[in-house]
Amino acid sequence: MNNYITLLKSNQIKVTPQRLAIVELMDVHGHISVRDIFTKIQTNFPSLSLATVYKNINAMVENSFIKELKIVGQDAKYELTKEEHSHMICKKCGKVEDIILETKSIVSSATKISHYTIDESSIQLFGVCPECS
Amino acid sequence: MNNYITLLKSNQIKVTPQRLAIVELMDVHGHISVRDIFTKIQTNFPSLSLATVYKNINAMVENSFIKELKIVGQDAKYELTKEEHSHMICKKCGKVEDIILETKSIVSSATKISHYTIDESSIQLFGVCPECS
DNA sequence: CTGACTGCAAACGTTTTGCACGGTA
DNA sequence: TACCGTGCAAAACGTTTGCAGTCAG
Prior knowledge:
Two copies of one chain form a homodimer.
Chain A: H1 3-10, H2 17-29, H3 34-43, H4 50-63, E1 66-69, E2 77-80, E3 86-90, E4 96-99, H5 104-114, E5 117-128
Parallel strand pairs in A: 3-5
Antiparallel strand pairs in A: 1-2, 3-4
Chain A binds a DNA duplex (25 and 25 nucleotides) through helix 4.
């Protein structure tokens, strides 16, 4: 049985070919924009509608099944929700990569300073990747 | 002599009433969206055009005179460029606040792991502010 | 006085919506 | 079979553009 089918079902999301294609693309690419999802899927699935992509993406974000990633200078990208992680962004090639960083110390010092109750963080680091330099 | 006039001039930006209003609003509010700039200024400056706001914001971002801030769940906001800092975002009231955090250690560990040359970072911490809890 | 800035209206691209049809469970 | 999801077309947004007139330096 297909992994993506299992994944959707375990999140109470009804399985359709469109959704399978979206989830597979996200899994393979890691981070992907609506436009890219649409054009990539449409190649071998010409009947796919952009409205359907939007509707599904929105519902999945609503669910927390996927996460929206806003990056300055880029279109919004989407990724499957997984272990908390940060992002490395290459300013030359635009690549976005996951990286697991220790955030406890920064969060605890921010808590001390601000007196916020912090439960989520977004850390993006910009620079040039090894391949581009 | 008005501070904002000095500020614009020192960045080689021609001084106009529209730009003064925009810069003043950003300074006072810290972080503000295009829509809010437009509606707030328009109250006592009815001839202001939304296109002018966009043109100025874009030129100022281009200049690095101001910075764009993309936050999940909110419109893009703009802030005057100043000392590097991070952001606290209250999930209840939507408030965005600056906070100065030590980022050296996280950046250096990310550099070791990823081999990126990192020169910029965006750190956003989400939670509930003291006033809302 | 000249080039840059503004306001307006139109154009554009993106996202959302309503509705009839089709497919999943 | 019942309901949810899909595709289509239109509508609603947000942002950009071109142009003619105005203003800052």
